[in-house]
Amino acid sequence: MANIEGSTVRARQDSTSDPPSHTTQVDGSLTAWLQVLSSFCVFFNTWGIVNSFGVFQTFYEANFLKLESPSNISWVGSSQTFLILVGAALVGPFFDRGYLRTLIQLGSFLVVFGTMMVSLCTHYWQVFLAQGIVVGLGLGCLFLPSVAVLAHYFAKKKSAALGIASAGGSLGGIVYPIVFQELQPRVGFPWAMRIMGFMILATMIFPLCTLSVHIPSSSARRPLYDKSAFTDLPYVMFCISQFFGLMAVYITLIYIHLYGLEQTTMDPKLASYLLSIINAASIAGRLFPNFVADKFGPLNVLIPLTAGTAILMFGWIRIHNGAGLVVFCILYGFFQGPFVSLPPTIVATLSPGLQSIGVRLGMMLAISGIGSLVGGPVAGAILQRPNGWMWLQIWCAVLFVVSGLRRLGFGC
Predict the structure, then answer these.
(1) DSSP 231
(2) Contact (Cβ atoms closer than 8 angstroms) between residue 39 and residue 376
(3) What's the burial of 172, exposed, middle or buried (CB within 10 Å: 0-12/13-18/19+)?
(4) Of 146, 148, 175, 301, which residue has the fewest beta carbons closer than 10 angstroms?
(5) What is the per-residue pLDDT across 208-259, written as a single tens digit (0 to 9) for each?
C-alpha cells in the first residue's frame, strides 16, 4: 500500500505545471519554523476552542439552558465545527489570491468579539448566534490559511510541521476547559468568557505579526471548487471517508463529560477533566503519527489509527468505572488526534500543484464539515431514546468503521 501511495504522490509531483517559483520550499529555515509556531497559535485558538465545547455542553445543560434538549445545545458546538470546515471552502480561493493577512485579521476579530458577546447571553438563540455563528465564522477564516501556508514552506517535512502546528489545538483543548471550569465558579460565567476572550486576543498577536506566504500568490481569479477534483477517484474516496470520520470524532468530545457524570461512579471533579485528558493525549496523537507519516505515507498511518478508534468505541460500551474511562480517554485522544493533523497533508499530496492546495483542501473540509454539523445533534437525539448511551456508542463506532473502509478502498 505504501508503494502504491508513494508512486501516486511522485506522479502527481512530477506532473505539476506550476512554474519554478511556485515549487521552491525552504524546509528547516528559521522563517519556515516561525510559520509553524504561528500556525500552532492559530490551532490553539481554533481547534482548541472547538475541542473545548464539551464543557459548555455540560454547563449549559445544568444552568441557563437546562430547558433545552442536549441535541439542541449540541447544535452550537456542531455549528462551530461546521463553519471552521465549510468556511475553509470559501476562504481557500482568497488565500490562493494572496489575502492571507486579511483572513487572519478578520478571523481574529470575529473569534474575540463572539467570545466576548457570549458573556452577555441569557437565551439559547443568543448563545447560538454568538458562540455558534460569529465565533464559527472567525474560526473558518483562520483555520485553512494556517494549514495551507505550511505547504508553501515544507516539502520533505510537511507532515511533521503540520503535526507540530496541530498540537496547538490539543493544547488549547486542555487549557480552555480548565480555565473555564476554574474561573466560572469564582468570577461567574460572564467574566469567565471575557477572560477567555482576552486570552484569545493575546495568543493571536504573534500569528498576526508573523504569518506570511513565502511564495508570491497569483492574482488570477479562481473558482470556489475544482471540477477536476471530482474526477479524481482517490481524492473523492478520501473526502467520503472524512465525511463519516468527522461525523463521529466530535461526538465523544461533546458528551464524554456528561457520560462520566451519568454512567460512572467517578468523582465529578475528575469527570470535569476528561475532556482535557483526551486533548492532552491527542498531542502525542498528532505529533508521533505525523513524523511516521513522512516516512510511510500519511494514509498508511491514518488507516490503522481509524481501525483502532473504531475498536475503542465498541469497547467504550462496557466501561462504567472511573479508572476505565480515564484509560479510554487517553487511548481515544491518541487515536483521534491524526483526524485533524494528517488529512491536510494527504490533500496536499493529491493536489496537482501548490496553487490548487487551498481550493482542494477547502473542498475536502467543506464535505467533512457537513458530517460534523449533523454528528453531535444526531447523537443527542439518540441519547434521548431508551438505552441511549449504548446506541450512541454503537452509532459512533459504525461511523468510524465506514470511514476506515473508505480509506482502505482509497489506499488499495
Answers:
(1) G
(2) no
(3) buried
(4) 175
(5) 998 887 555 555 566 667 777 788 888 888 888 889 988 998 899 889 988 9
Longest pairwise C-alpha distance within the chain: 62
Q: What is the mean pLDDT of residues 9-22?
A: 39
CB 190 within 8 A of CB 119: yes
Task: Please say whether the beta carbons of 151 and 168 come within 8 A.
Answer: no
One-letter amino acid at 183 equals: L
Residue 388 CB coordination number (10 Å): 15
How open is the CA angle 334-157-97, to the nearest 5 degrees?
Answer: 105
Phi, psi of 27 (to 5 degrees): -50, 130
- 396, HSE (Cβ side, Cα atoms, 13 Å): 33
Q: In whole angstroms, how far apart are CA 36 and each of 152, 159, 166, 344?
A: 11, 11, 9, 14
Q: Is 188 left (phi over 0), alpha (psi -120 to 50) or beta?
A: left
Q: Which residues contact 174 (CB under 8 A, 6 or more apart)?
A: 276, 279, 280
- Confirm if 200 and 172 have CB atoms less than 8 A apart: no
Q: Residue 40: CB partners within 8 Å, gap ≥ 6?
A: 164, 165, 167, 168
pLDDT in tens, 251-299: 998 899 889 988 988 888 888 899 999 989 988 887 888 778 777 878 8
User: Quick check: 39 and 149 in contact, CB under 8 A?
Assistant: yes
d(CA 15, CA 272): 51
Neighbours of 186 (CB within 10 A): 8
Q: How many H-runs (helices) and E-runs (strands) does the chain carry? A: 20, 0
Q: Which amino acid is at 316?
A: W
Q: Compute CA 257 distance to the chain's CA centroid, rounded to the nearest angstrom.
A: 19
- Amino acid letter for position 330: I
CA distances from 189 to 53, 196, 337 (A): 15, 11, 30
Pick from 273, 262, 111: nearest CA to 182: 273
CB atoms within 10 A of CB 381: 16
